[in-house]
Amino acid sequence: MDWNKLLELTIYGVALASIYAIAASGLVVTYTTSGIFNFAHGAIGMLMAFAYWQVRVEWGWPTWLSLLVILGFVAPLTGAAIERVLIRNLRAAPLAVTLVVTAALMVGLMGLATVLWAPNRSRLLPGFYTGKTVTIANTIVTYQQLITIGLAVLLAIGLRSLFLWTRTGIAMRAVVDSRDLVALNGGRPVMLSTLSWALGAMLAGLAGILLASGPTGIGLAIEALTLVVINAYAAALFGRLRSIAFTFVGALVIGLVQQYSVGYNLTDNAFFNTQVVPVVPYLMLFVALLLLPEGRLRGAQLVHAIKIRVPSLRTSIFWGGVLVLAGWVISELVTGTNLTAVSKGVAIGIIMLSLVPLTGYAGQISLCQMTFAGVGAFAMSRIASSGTTVGFGSLGIGNGNPLGLLAAFVLAAAVGALIALPAIRLQGLYLALATMAFAVIMSSAFFEGGAIFGAGSTDAGAVQRPHFGFVSLNSNAAYLVFLTFVFGLVAVGVLALRRGPFGRRLLALRDSPAAVATLGGSPTRTKLLVFSLSAGLAGLGGALYGGVDRNVTAGQFSLFGPPGSLSVFVLAVVGGVATVSGPLLGGQLLMMTPVFFTWLGTKLKTDLTPYAQVLFGLAGIGLGRNPGGAVAEISTRFRALVMDRTVHESESETHDPPIEGLLRRDVPLGAPITPSQLQELDALLDLEEVSGIGRAGSR
Amino acid sequence: MTPSELDLVTAESEPAASAPEREPILELRAVRAAYGRIEVLRGVDLAVPEGSVVALLGRNGAGKTTTLNVISGQLPASHGSVMLAGRRVNGASADQLARLGVCTVPEGRGVFPNLTVHENLRLFTYCGITVDEVEAATFARFPKLEPRRRQLAGTLSGGEQQMLALARALATRPAVLLLDELSMGLAPIVVEELYAQVAKIATEGISVLVVEQFARTVLAVADLAAVMHHGTIHHVGTPGAVMDQLSDAYLGGGLS
């Protein structure tokens, strides 16, 4: 046993764990006090590290002043501003909306960082007390490591005292139990929430700076830095997003496991060492989620229901036909890269359609749809290519055999079921985090390795277009028409599903899992089914998406993309994930916006491409205001113009105000309580009261 | 607003007339409030004289809890005035009113289940008293709570939780105490114990407005009783009078 190596790795691990702990405790503080999980936590840390670089290196300020300005002012003010502008309005919003807003914030901040600090030059952040070391038992420890560990210890003590010994800290914990009650106790929940976001952003910033300046080898890289701070999410989950103490324990476990797995070559397997080891924190995030005790089934929640009209079969087929016609017209008008972008937009639209049953109807959140799309593209490339290409080789059934599409659906659905089996008992936020971890794991461990999409720097894999004997899809124009046809077909299918019994079950699942269970339905089986169906549709979309360029890269199916699972989810919800036209809009937004900015950039002779990402962020953030999505909003406005009456009707249906007494009652499905029944119930209750009075009065 | 048979029993202007000479510490004048488009309070007039216990009775959906929510600042009144010690306090937030001396024990359990008893008491220190004083006052009144100091409030029994919630009223010495359904889910004997404490609180000069389904228990300690129906106060009087009127109204067939 090499004790020195163990000690060295342990010190590295503890230092890394300290950074995770700092980041994770910031996350816990914001989550507990505001009830909103901040997906943008990592991005805030990344942004602060860049801001620190700006003042420390670019402007040459002294270290102490730079730290004071960034951590003392910029970070807390950023956090407080985010809370004021975005988070405060989200308190009563459904989980999907809160996730989209913070995920969009993450996308937007990453875009902002690209705009402000274009990655065309290398930036180095100096460490603290570079070169100064102490030697402990023959092991060299840098000052930076000592400082990092010391800061984490101080933070642990500080947070513990804050939460246990100060009135503000106790009130911050009390907000978790009941916001209203805190106000009734003379506390100011709004201020506490602002304070927690300021503190959270400061801790994220500290973690970001320590990471970027430390010997972690990350440096100032937008994506990597954001992702590494996300490693801390796993630590926060060890504490179930509540306990600071367990969060620190979780951070320690993750930091040490990560360092040991890097330091000790457990195997000579190159795949394991280069592709699995980097995602160890995400594997642990996944495991931590699976180890969470099963939450209780949630009863009905009274959220502002958004009434979406479901068109009849005939109407939907009619509009599907109109869409194909429009696709044909566009294919005649548009050429070159624009045609490719429109086609990709439609293909992404099909992938986004896969979110309609899952998120729009059943209210489940998946941040790994592009992963399933990648699986679909893989299946297509293997089944329907001729001859061996790369990696696993090809089955060589034939050039563009349509069976490839079926294989894409089936394989993606199978992978979907596989991930769903362990993760399905998770609810809401935890499911979203599990799917995010899955997206990163799959992307790093499989897609990027070359085994799936071919080796080499581009990781390119050839994906054939499906080939039907009677019609050729070789021209890009014909392929666009085919894509719109498939989109229409899937959309009609999804709407048919919505009208049928399975669709009703999905909506019931979203509104009240407990009610589904009491009615004898199995929430788990329903979720499993809809999850695989959704994965299968995403796989189909992925196979078709690959066909546009006849080529895919691993990056397209990663979390960040482009296009990436995160943007796909955000823009699908922005378009409106409860409608089928929302994904059509979302797909075009995702693909056409960069095209537009590139075009504008060439006109203005500057590079505007990063602004597309900022715009996505803003679009998602704007969603906080109309959670129904753009299409629902537009159609409501449009109908308001066309016929005044309809809107009034739909509005009165939309905002069913809570009636006292009915609010917290779980109304079983299929048996709505009518107002007259309610009166009867009240009369019954009153009789008991009256008899009590009567007895007292007759005495 | 629909006129009901109860209007025949008393005129709406009666509250002021039937109140004793003491100045009302809390007064509602023609207060209206709505959840979205459904108006729940349709002109509530109610006065709580200083140092008295006023019971607010009425069937489900009559607007009792809504009335308390308006007074405590959780729901804004759309019309009318909420007067606290002669000053109009419409628009004040819940935390401001709490600091002004309106202590609300909301429906359900008015405690933080994931904080210990001690930490709950700690949160009652917003009016300039120390946590030691709060603890002394609380444990003197509810000795049962003392051994549970380090226990999470959520693990207390229902009665003990309500005691803890009531302890706030004892410690912070508010001007007005608003109690909503103190008895919910508790055994009758526990309810009586709690109301004995409410009566004691009232003797110390704290005015109490209490919403209750256990009409008999609360009328035993109340100085005045008001009956709500359909978002308005329909009559106010001494507990005895209200009880007679009520039993006449309900059992004598005056009201179906």
Tell me what the structure shows.
- The complex is a heterodimer of chains A (699) and B (256).
- Chain A is mainly alpha-helical and 699 residues long.
- In chain A, 69% of the residues lie in helices and 2% in strands.
- Chain A contains 28 helices and four strands.
- Chain A has a two-stranded antiparallel ribbon with strand order 1-2. In chain A, strands 3-4 form a two-stranded antiparallel sheet.
- The longest helix of chain A has 32 residues, at 3-34.
- The N and C termini of chain A lie far apart (89 Å).
- Chain B is of the alpha/beta class and 256 residues long.
- In chain B, the strands form two sheets. A six-stranded mixed beta sheet of chain B has the order 6-7-8-3-9-10, with helices on both faces.
- Chain B starts with 13 loop residues before the first helix and ends in a 5-residue tail after the last helix.
- The A-B interface holds A 167, 170-171, 173-174, 176-178, 180-189, 652, 655-661, 678, 681-683, 685-686, 689-690, 692-698 and B 34-38, 40, 59-61, 63, 65-66, 72-74, 93-95, 98-99, 103-104, 106, 110-115, 119, 122-127, 168, 213-216, 219, 243-244, 246-247, 250-251.
* CATH T-level fold name of the largest domain in chain A: ABC transporter involved in vitamin B12 uptake, BtuC
User: What distance lies between the first and last C-alpha atoms of chain A, to the nearest angstrom?
Assistant: 89 Å
Count of structural domains of chain A: 2
CATH superfamily of chain B: P-loop containing nucleotide triphosphate hydrolases
Share of helix of chain A, binned: 55-70%
* Percent of sequence in beta strands of chain A: under 5%
Nearest-integer average pLDDT of chain A: 78
Q: What level of helicity do the residues of chain B show?
A: 25-40%
- Share of β-strand residues of chain B: 25-35%
The CATH class assignment of chain B is Alpha Beta
Biggest interface and residues each: A-B, 41 and 48 residues
Q: Please report the number of helical segments of chain B.
A: 9
Q: Cα distance, first to last residue of chain B?
A: 19 Å
